[in-house]
Design a protein that fits this description.
heterodimer, A: 175 residues, alpha+beta, Nuclear Transport Factor 2, Chain: A, B: 101 residues, 24% helix, elongated
Chain lengths: 175, 101
């Protein structure tokens, strides 16, 4: 296992690639977007809506942990919202994102974001367990209202608790 | 309407990060994730997901996972100071166990 102090920070990576420098306001906006998505995926009533996370024609692709399977695709913010709202759910979840790396080509308003995620499931009578984990690969841009939104989100699941596991919290097909 | 100051936000997050790194000496480790700071003048409010990990290396467990809000203020020299969590949650986070292991 690599000690955390050996991992290069976004700032260190960008220092070696000055053409992709990300200033604090971009990082601030992107991190807020990642947090908003987590609240939406958790059905947090204090969170904002999906339309604050995705552009109207955004594309969400979810890749199974099993190699070779085609991704599940959702086109458009409304379809993404419907899919999450209709997923059977029996317990609360908490999505967290870390290891965020932001890159941008010179002059391009769209940034590429790579990150890692964990979904915690709060299982009644059992406690908090890791429900799934994986990586996100995103493209996002700043919108006229000041919010950043995803143009694309790829979810690459590395592992997910079996739907048959005791107390399975969620049947969410995406996370 | 709060005016967010990205530079101040980075400073405030660094102070919070340092506080919870210092807490790693305790039996549980608290990670603050999905942090969103809002800066308004000399105060900062940071909403996060707090994950407390414990147990041994072979079988770590998630002792707590919840949303928290931390408040910070600038002292007379301009440094960020973290206000105690109102409910004593900083202690509770390391003592409360939700996992059977």
């Amino acid at each position: 296992m690599v000690p955390t102090w050996m991992l290069a920070s976004t700032e260190q990576v960008q220092a070696k690639n000055p053409e992709t420098t990300i200033d604090a306001s971009i990082r601030d906006g992107v991190l807020a977007l990642l947090a908003r998505y987590g609240r939406c995926a958790d059905h947090d009533p204090a969170g904002s809506g999906w339309s604050d996370c995705f552009e109207d024609d955004a594309l969400l692709s979810s890749y199974s942990p099993r190699p070779g399977r085609p991704p599940a695709l959702l086109r458009g913010c409304a379809a993404i919202e419907r899919a999450f709202a209709s997923a059977p759910k029996t317990a609360a979840t908490t999505h967290v994102t870390s290891n965020v790396l932001i890159e941008r080509a010179p002059g391009d308003p769209i940034v590429a974001i790579r990150s890692a995620f964990v979904r915690f499931d709060h299982l009644p009578g059992i406690g908090v367990v890791v429900g799934s984990f994986g990586r996100y690969s995103d493209r996002a841009r700043p919108c006229d209202d000041g919010l950043w939104r995803f143009c694309e989100r790829e979810i690459h699941l590395i592992s997910r608790r079996s739907p048959h596991a005791a107390g399975m919290a969620s049947q969410q097909p995406f996370t | 309407m709060p005016v967010n100051d990205p530079t101040a936000a980075v400073e405030a997050l660094a102070v919070l990060d340092a506080l919870y790194r210092a807490a790693e000496a305790t039996p549980g480790v608290e990670l603050l994730l999905n942090s969103v700071p809002v800066i308004e003048g000399g105060t900062a409010t940071v909403s996060s997901v707090s994950v407390v990990l414990g147990g041994d290396l072979r079988h770590p467990d998630v002792r707590l996972c919840r949303r928290v809000t931390d408040s910070l203020h600038r002292d007379s020299s301009g440094r960020w100071c973290v206000d105690p969590r109102p409910d004593g949650a900083d202690l509770d986070a390391r003592e409360h166990r939700t996992s059977p292991s």
